[in-house]
Amino acid sequence: MKDRQTRNERRAQTLLDYANELDARVEAACARLAAARVTLLNQAVLLKEVNDAVPVLSRLSERLFELSVLPYYLHQLDRVQGAAHFVVEDSRAVEILTGLRANLPGYLVPRLVRERAGMAYKTPVETSVENV
User: Fold this and answer.
1) Chain segment 99-123, per-residue pLDDT in tens
2) Is CATH 3.40.640.10 what the domain over 11-131 is classified as, yes or no?
3) What three-state secondary structure class fits 114?
4) Exposure string for 16-41, b = 16+ CB within 10 A, e = fewer
5) How many Cβ atoms sit within 10 Å of the Cβ of residue 114?
6) What angle do helix axes 54-66 and 90-103 make, rounded to 10 degrees?
7) What is the pLDDT of residues 42-68, one digit of tens each?
8) Which residues, 6 or more positions from 43, have their beta carbon under 8 angstroms from its beta carbon?
């Protein structure tokens, strides 16, 4: 077994929320990065009436994987002024995640997380639904 050399690995994050964003330019950029042996991870934001459905997010995960991008995080939207109409309640987000798990292989299911002020890491939503 080969030792992990995490210090020398190259990673890049993509911020893609919807499969329609994966146009020819994105495909070409992902291909160049993958050819350069850069690990590509996607962070999507869960948005009400944009991508808050299992088929929509399943398609995003499948398309990302076709481009050598792993669906890594599915963020709950930060509760900022002017964005309330995009908020997906945690209970609904967990339902969506459950649907993704039922429809996709595990490596295509992103982690459902949120950022909390003052925390050095992202908080899993699944374990914090009752605390919101």
Assistant:
1) 999 999 999 999 999 888 777 778 8
2) no
3) strand
4) bbebeebeeebeeebeebeeeeeebb
5) 21
6) 50
7) 999 999 999 999 999 999 999 999 999
8) 13, 14, 15, 72, 73, 74, 75
Location of structure tokens 């939503």: 125
* pTM recorded for the entire structure: 0.85
C-alpha torsion 127→115→103→11, nearest 10: -130
**Residue in 82, 88, 83 with CA at minimum distance from that of residue 129:** 88
- Report domain extents, the chain: 11-131
Beta bridge partners of 13: 41
**Residue 110: both structure tokens together:** 């992103």
Torsion, Cα of 24, 26, 31, 32 (10° steps):
110
